[in-house]
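Reposting from the mailing list since nobody answered there.

I have sequence plus structure tokens for a pair of proteins and want to know whether others read the tokens the same way I do. The first protein:
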Amino acid sequence: MQQVSSVLVTGASGGIGSATVTCYLEAGHQVFGLDRVAAPEQASFTPIVVDLTDEDAMHEVMRQIGPIQHVVSIAGGALPAEKNSPDPTQLPLEVFRASLEHNLISAFVTLQTAVPNLRAANGDRSIAFTTSTDALISCGLPAYAAAKAGIIGLVNSLTSPLGGEGIRINAVAPGDIPTARNRAEWAHRPDWYTNLASSNPLRRLCTPKEIAETFVALSDRLTGMTGQTVVVDAGLVRGQLAGSDG
């Protein structure tokens, strides 16, 4: 039987975040969900409203939570201003900076403030970050891609230092998931998800639940895995790379 652990999930109110909370609860874990928007309370789940880029507020939250075995950093996403930009090379600098803050800085603050909680826990411990296929292939979102590529660099740089303490660190790279928020933000391109699905080798898009199950597997079952970026995209990256070989 899988040992019950305490799990911290950031972005817990979003499409992927809420699915991840549900998967961990179904696996019998105690879950703390952080987000700027409150998630509904339920058994074994504690929602906490906090700005993930506010270092002092995050330190206070971590002091309240205590030891945790697993951290899942999901908060982030491409900003609407970038999705609507007609020329990616002329993206306003304030949007580029905001994307770094929203995706990369928030992840690093989560890491810094949560590591003492991981160190205080016993048994297998892990951190899983959310990067994106945008960090691996061309999708025309330079700020988001740069921020998510930074997540991969973060994982690579910390694999050995954290591994020496028995803490695993990995990243999950979803393809573009058609959550309610994403569908609303791509509404100006109504064929966006239809075209994306038809171009994938599996001829479909992944679901929030499939991404959530990947996070649970990384913490509960794939206990020999660290320093890896796991791509979950219905074959999007491989299909594009294969198409460019010719």
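The second protein, same order (residues first, tokens after):
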Amino acid sequence: MDIEGRQVLEMGYAGAERLTMNMGPQHPSSHGVFRAILTLEGETVVAVDAVIGYLHRCHEKLSETLTYTQYPSIASKTDYVAAMTSELAYVRAAEMVGKIDVPKRAQYLRVIAAELQRVASHCLWLGTWCLDMGGALGGGATVFLYCIREREDVLDLFESLTGARLLYGFHQVGGTRYDIPAGWAQKCRATVDKIDGRINEFEAMLESNAFFMARTQGVGTVSRELAQEVGISGPLIRGSGVNYDIRRAEPYSSYEDFDFKVPVETAGDCFARYRVRMIEFRESIKIVRQALDGLPEGPISSRPGVKSVGQVRIPKGEAYARVEGARGEVGCYLIADGSAKPYRMKWRGASFSNLAVLPHIIPGHKVADVVAIMGSVDPVFGEVDR
């Protein structure tokens, strides 16, 4: 054997050759809409090139062609598993430009919808994340089925409130389109009580599972400094030790009326992000209960009856409104020209910004860890591509 051959043996296979592998868009964990070009040494990832754009639908340009009453149902198609919060960012921007008041009852209804949406979104995240990590987890499919069961209960509430289960059109400029029907509050209390008890089951199943702990602890670590430099938000930045939540930092829709805790973990790994979301489950349920208890009487909109095309005109101006979505900061920068349609709009999607951290944290991990890391980031690609 020559000297070069012996050097290759001493280095091991990992140092002998670099391979390029596509993970997605057909890979199950990329959900058909994301492609990661991985550079590998053996099974270790040394570089990541994220390819997006598979769901681009000219979302921001569409805003210029649709009225303020039409567009909320289009805004919901960005983060389509948390449509309530996407709609809220848009109507808040219009209300800020037009200096339009929102009745107290509508503000509380918005909070109830937003927190129920956070619970439903986290259910989908937890279930699909465990399913993506697969058979090695030993029970990933079971957790998925349980989480979808709880999510369906929340979607039942949304269906009885708006007539829809995924894209709602619940918000309108000046308030909400619907009030809660008779018996809805009691059904909502029963639903959140049931989900609150089930969260303990999820934690017991996962945190006693050695495979789950091995695949999440110390994997995909985002330092506090990196989190702030890249500009991630939501559960990701709170999982890296940064105590920041828009509902607390810049309260909107009467969030200042509610008592809730902002969960923070310092490890910055997949497990820390998991723990943040599990606590958020309980805090969202706590907020829903408080909002139901204190739900004021009165109108649900300062512009009652505005449901048809072209009846809302916003004076010239511009504003940036942001809300704390299930994945982090969802922002809408809107410019009005005095007509019934926006002049320009720019969207800040939490998933888009959060996805930027992947090339920083995946290198050095094995191929199998890519699935766990990407799932812990919880991107929704309608919000990424827009």
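Reply #1 (J.P.):
I read it the same way you do. Confidence is low (pLDDT under 50) at residues 1-14.
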